[in-house]
Amino acid sequence: MLSGGRIFRKKLALVLLAIVCVPFTVMLLHRDDNGAHLEDELTSELAHLRQRVSQVEMINQARRMDLSLLTQHVNRSLPWKGTYVFVTCMYSSPDLAWRSRITSAICKPLYMNNTNGEEFPELSRLLLDPERSQNLRLPNIFSFLPYLLNNPLSTVPAFVVGQGKTHASIVLGVPTVKRESQSYLLPTLASLIASMNEEEKNDTLIIVFVAETDLEYVTVIAEKIKKQFGDALQSGLLEIVSPPASFYPDLNELRVTLNDPVERVKWRTKQNLDYAFLMMYAQSRGMYYVQLEDDILTTPGYITKMKKFALKKEAMNLEWFLLDFCQLGFIGKMFKSTDLPYIIQFAVMFHNDKPVDWLLDPIIETRYCPHDTKKCNQIKLLKWIHFKPSLFQHVGTTSSLKGKVQKLKDKNFGKLALFTPHKNPPAKVTSPIKAYKQFTIQRAYRGDSFFWGLMPQAGDDIVFEFSKPVELHGYRLRSGNYEHPSDLLYNTSIEIRPIDPERVKGSLKISPGEHFIGVGEFNDLGIAEGKIDPSQFGQIGAVRLVIKSASKNWVIISEIMFDTGSG
């Protein structure tokens, strides 16, 4: 006889198969020259469906585990003689299953008197026999992180902002920490989001894990993200989460392993626990999980490329464990959500012993390999599959480990343009900022290269004096590039000088004696763009960038575009 859970899963699978297969079957009955293409689509959809069913089964199993633990806990709390309780739970909404475990369920106790166990005779005998009722205590996270028992909220996020999106095809995990000098988080998110189309955005969830326990700092980061990516937060594409301080051990009491310096041991131990927390939070939110870092760039269409590659392997019945979309470290590593418990378990068990990316080989060897080394190497090639060209590039140079500088680049990523040229109106361009070698502001304005200047100082400016007055409809200026993402313009204003200052005499922000009017600022991403109404300002004689504070870095201007409405 099938249990209720198996019957449910079987019916669910049949319903989903019917929904997906019927339309494709109809199309295949009317095959034409595109028949092979339709077969490919059907195969891909079936692979997608199988993975969805696996994810639902994983969530269902987690709920059953909750119920079992709750039942055990309730029965242990009751005296041996009296009334015993079984607990049944009905989840009010599948969409709430990702939330805090038992709190998303409506639980009903079923009481059974110890003198009347006819309805559940075997369970009655079990409960009434103390020796038989001593349940096995299975290892869990508290077995390896016992300090978590000191605080019941140790595994509950301290901070969450988002719409609670579930059923995504791909979940991107982006952990971030406070760095000594430069943060790459906002440019990373800009690249990830700008490289998606609307369909991809609807099918994806980006979880930013701020791995800091200072809530004031977490709130500041969240506000910066909200300012730049408010629409992504509102739509559910983006979510922000941070852990409680009690999730981490006393890092001063760690064992020194691998003969590493103490500070490195602390850093990689915390990083392992960061990954474990993020994966535990993400595992029920989508079919596939992709581990990223906060200092990367990507290319357009990367979501579709990853999903198609994964579904192709599923359709070929290849039981892969890891799809690798970047050759560096732990970047671009895709796992099925149903396989995340293996990564989480190893990261938790060996959090003080090895970096998590060093654990990937041992996981595959332990799970799949025989003792034959040659066969094991062949098996690894089938379980850890590399995709080329790489879809992610590491751009950061300042590590989250104090004093560590890393200039790692993925050679399989290809090249990104270092500047974006535009045809601008003729102008004389001047600036007191000294250019590095041939990377002058004049060449950047002509679209021949980018401008690379030594550290700007407060009061420095860049002036674009048009040869003839122009009707200016808009502008876009971008600082930094993917090789030097930290060489940005901050605290810099955009000003225009109308030919007829009397026309806008009543306007605010007119610089005394110069008739320049402020129309914009560079944002936290180092970008300034906006529209200008010619009917309000008339013809423009010049545009000026004014730097209001000294920079610790050099500056790159990789795009200069003045829209004069000429096409």
From TrEMBL:
Residues 138-413 form the MGAT4 conserved region domain. GO terms for biological process: protein N-linked glycosylation. This is Alpha-1,3-mannosyl-glycoprotein 4-beta-N-acetylglucosaminyltransferase A. Pathway: Protein modification; protein glycosylation. The keyword Zinc-finger does not apply. It comes from Daphnia galeata. The chain crosses the membrane at residues 12-30. Residues 427-559 form the MGAT4 A/B/C C-terminal domain. GO terms for molecular function: acetylglucosaminyltransferase activity. InterPro entries: Glyco_transf_54, MGAT4, MGAT4_A/B/C_C. Signal peptide: none annotated. GO terms for cellular component: endoplasmic reticulum; endoplasmic reticulum-Golgi intermediate compartment; Golgi stack. Keywords: Glycosyltransferase, Membrane, Transferase, Transmembrane, Transmembrane helix.
